Every structure is written in structure tokens, then in C-alpha cells.
Amino acid sequence: MQFNHVANRLAPEYFETVVEMLTTQLRFVILRRTERAIWLRQPGANVDLQFSRSPTPGRDADKLRSQVAFLSETPRQDLEALAAWAAAHGMEASVGAYSDREFYLDAPAAFVDFVIEAMRPELADYGVTA
């Protein structure tokens, strides 16, 4: 088997807003779309991201441990820019920190079971070659 994608859930009322944020702010391209789900890929990446619409009224209390993660030289600033974009588009979002090199963006009304993480590139230097 070969790894293909990761799937997460979004609140239906913010589904299109999150897709717009990823496509306009992070350059994701849409690969496929159905009535309930969408598959996206960021150019240069080799793993796809799928989002499904979820009417789940409650949110996962431990979702900070489930991330869609990105590498960035300026992780806090990049997430703060996404939070500002989200607010300008009617989606409340806030930035928190796991450490001084790892940060997360949560949009509680939109993200059902995950947060968006940004971390310094050296944290992903595992010394493993593919």
C-alpha cells in the first residue's frame, strides 16, 4: 500500500470558506469534489488533504492533538495572517502555541476534529531519506 491522503471534517456552514482559505492563501488546488467532500493538494506536496462536511454539533475536546501541519520560517506570523483572513471572511479563528517553534490555528466553529499547525522546518528534519 502507498500513502495517499488524510481526511478531516469541517462544519458545513464553513466548508467553502475553509476551501477558499486554502486555495487562495496557501495555493492548494482542487483535485476532486463531491457533494459531501473535497480533495486538495498543495503544489510540491505528495500527500492530499480531504475534507468532508460534518453536521456533528459537538467538537472533539482533544482536537489540538490532531493537526493539518505546515512548515514555515515564520509560523506564528503565518497563522496570524490566516486568522486575520478568516475573521475578514466571517470565520472566528485564534492562534495558540505548543512551544516557541510550533503554533496552531483553531477555527472552533469550522474545524471539527483538527487544528492547523505551523512549525519551524528544523522540527521536521528527521534525518530519514525516502
From TrEMBL:
Q: Which SUPFAM superfamilies match?
A: Glyoxalase/Bleomycin resistance protein/Dihydroxybiphenyl dioxygenase
Domain of life the protein comes from: Bacteria
What InterPro entries does UniProt report for this protein, alphabetically? Glyas_Bleomycin-R_OHBP_Dase
Protein name as catalogued: VOC domain-containing protein
